[in-house]
Structure formats: C-alpha cells, structure tokens
Amino acid sequence: MVGHPSPEGAHHIHVCTACRNRETDELRGVALLALLAEAATKGDLPDGFTVSGINCMAGCAHPCTVGFQSAGKAAWLFGDLLPEDLADLLAFAQLYHALPDGWSRSTERPGKMAHAALARIPAGPASGVTA
Prior knowledge:
Blueprint: E1 11-16, H1 28-41, E2 49-54, E3 66-70, E4 75-78, H2 86-98, E5 117-121
Parallel strand pairs: 1-2
Antiparallel strand pairs: 1-3, 3-4, 4-5
C-alpha cells in the first residue's frame, strides 16, 4: 500500500479518558493524557502533533487505549498502556511521523508498542476514489 505524506499539523494522538485501572478505579487515561499534553508542550513530540482525550474508544478490555491518526496514513489503536509507557509512546510518535504510510512491523515499534497493537486501520481512499 502506498500512502500519501500528511500535511504538517495533521498527526493526532487520541487517549481514552474513560479507561480505568480495574483494581483501583483510577482513570489511567486521564493521567496518560496529562503526560502526553505536557510532553507536547515541552516539544517532546514531533512538530504537527495534537493530543486529545476521547471519552471512550471501545477498548475497555485493554485499558488504557491510545490511537494514532493522520490523513493518508494507516491509523493505530494500542491497548494495555500505562502512564509508565510514556517514553514508548513518544518514540512511536517519532516513528509514525516519519512513516509515509503509517505502516510498521512489530519489530520496528519501540518497547511495549511492539506488542500492544489492537488494530491497524488502513488509510481511507483518496477523495473521489470509488471502487
């Protein structure tokens, strides 16, 4: 599959804010979102990334879920992430930003991201393309 590079500013990280620790009921997603937002403010994410919270990403069996999305690229949904996985998330953001089509093998993804993928969604068709 051939992707199309995304325009600057079109990379998004979505964090499920409803994800909870099953034992403590702590909102892990809220904590992870705060860490990612702080990283973005400090310049630890590539240029053009936005970070947002989403009330539910339907990954309830694998809290916390985080999605990566960009126009013309495959999107990713990762699960079972903790605030302690921030460094791996930031490293994947660097990789995702550099990939023209968003596709990566598990062996290319950093740390926990190598085995935390729940879904890889192919990029949508170009505008006006029909089957």
